[in-house]
Amino acid sequence: GDSVTQMEGPVTLSEEAFLTINCTYTATGYPSLFWYVQYPGEGLQLLLKATKADDKGSNKGFEATYRKETTSFHLEKGSVQVSDSAVYFCALPYSSASKIIFGSGTRLSIRP
Amino acid sequence: NAGVTQTPKFQVLKTGQSMTLQCAQDMNHNSMYWYRQDPGMGLRLIYYSASEGTTDKGEVPNGYNVSRLNKREFSLRLESAAPSQTSVYFCASRPGGSWGDQPQHFGDGTRLSIL
User: Fold this and answer.
1) Is B1 within 8 Å of chain A by CB?
2) Best label site of A50, A101, B13, B28, fewest CB within 10 Å?
3) Mean pLDDT by 10 residues, chain B (115 residues)
């Protein structure tokens, strides 16, 4: 069945470091893929999305490329800031359904 | 522009008490969802309503009931609260149709503790 596997955290980096959070998926066909972010005490917000293979989603300096060959959608940022400290979720809609699967979340902490 | 509004934001209950979590959206969305978030377990779907007048079970429906009161409102009821239901509860909505064009919008959550 459909599934999402996300890199476990927590991840702690220094400010201006390079970030990668891995996400791989199993799905029927080529669904849309999402990254959501959750800041402390808040709900999830859509960070970026890709709707087809080879698409690159980007927002706030974050990028993720939909790679069908490796069934991956890794999140990257070239230079992280303290304000990027949050929990990040990879997500995949179920095939032919109204539901979406979320990864387990990766907590990111950035040191000044 | 309120988006998805959840009430209350915090609640403490005793085991066996009942309560209803309220969710309302002002975006004219068709689909609404209830999730719970527990440490290290991501989000788990409790119930969802793909459109007004329909509700379906998610991964963890036991101990909960829902009502899609109208297009705007989707409530979650705990009939007899148990400590295992201590969690943060999130409501979400989306217009419906293609996921690529119409992702979910989330409320800020209800933090529920059962003693």
Assistant:
1) no
2) B28
3) 90 96 96 90 90 92 96 96 96 82 88 96
